[in-house]
Amino acid sequence: MDVTTLPPVINKRRSAAVVLGLLAAAALTGPAPAAARDEPDETPAEPPKVELVLDVSGSMRARDIDGRSRIDVAQQAFGEVVDALPDGTQLGIRVLGATYPGKDKAQGCRDTQQIVPVGPVDRVRAKAAVATLRPTGFTPVGLALREAAKDLGTGSTARRIVLITDGEDTCAPPDPCEVARELAAQGTRLVVDTLGLAPDEKVRRQLLCIAAATGGTYTAAQSADELTGRIKQLVDRARDTYTATPAQVDGSAACAGAPLLAPGVYTDREKFSEHRWYRVPVRAGQELRASVSLAVDRPVNPDHGVLLRATAPDGRELVRGVDAGSGRTDVVSAGLRWSGAEAEPDGAEPDEAGPTPGASAAAPAVVCLVVSNSLAPRPGTETSPGMPIELTVDVVAASPAPDGPDLGRGWTLLLLLTLAGLLTGLLAGLLTRWWVATWREN
């Protein structure tokens, strides 16, 4: 179901809360939830760290991308990406299959080197190092991923690897998908995004597996512009790091039985046109702030989006979020803000089956969050696994809007308008008399 067809919220009091939902959406691309930010932070935030891993095996000689060789297109893309690096980004570059031209598989499957160490980027040095690469040997993807993880090290924020390859691993073991699972199981806060340069089904399945194991994305790049644009997006996304690793959660198909979430950052996957439900306890006098970002990691039809709603357990809508697009084409976001002290929706009776938001300070009410998308795949686009979503949840003390004229009764506003009209008429009359008197004298 297209999210644009869902019924609008009719509670007038919540119109301001819906607008303020934009503020909550910003939390997903920034630090941890507001409750965590209230604590003094004695550790300075780490700079973004990302390593580009480039396949330079013999198959990269193929001339099938805009009439150019795959390595030529990759080198151009790398140069443009390095020139456009965001300030403060720490970048490294690792290659595989770049130095050994022989047929000894044991030796060729050890062929991976870091040609630019992770750190502040010397743009001239980085572009020169990539420009001299020539397609050479085997494809030890699994080993290169394991070494790239070592290059990035560990720390308090997520690291990102961007793997660009045109073929499946020719050296397993280690199997690259198993390496990705191994790294994820170690809690290394590592995300691997994959870019495929060849329309090969086996390669696509392997790269999807690597990305899915680490919460990353897979993209097939079939032109120089697509490759350059996607690498830039992924490097830029490295700035969206967290002081805490997002927790894996599996949303349900309905509110009943949905996972109960505490304040924090969560990651999940959602299929096309799916609804995923979560639950959050909110006490009277507290305010729920939530935001969601969905990574558009495959071709989709335009003019669709993502919707975040808060509902009561019986399905009554409390508030819906608003789109918080930032101009990025690879992520769509929405956010909402709702206070537990708010009344029941207009015309709705209290829920006799259980507590309602704001009904008791002792027992928190359960608010259901539902993430919906109306994205539709383009022909030939793989629909599984689902697209990565990141959900930020926070519960803070309610911050009601400042008092203003009671628009329901309207007497104060009417009196103010009447006085303003009288003063305006008196001033206009005095000015007119002065102008007429001056005109007659002249």
From TrEMBL:
Residues 49-238 form the VWFA domain. Keywords: Membrane, Signal, Transmembrane, Transmembrane helix. It holds the Pfam family VWA_2. Residues 1-34 form the signal peptide. SMART domains: VWA (SM00327). Residues 343-352 have a biased composition (Acidic residues). SUPFAM superfamilies: vWA-like. The chain crosses the membrane at residues 411-436. Gene3D superfamilies: von Willebrand factor, type A domain. Residues 341-360 are annotated as: Disordered. InterPro entries: CLCR, VWF_A, vWFA_dom_sf. PANTHER family: CALCIUM-ACTIVATED CHLORIDE CHANNEL REGULATOR (PTHR10579), EXPRESSED PROTEIN (PTHR10579:SF102). This is Ca-activated chloride channel family protein. It comes from Micromonospora nigra.
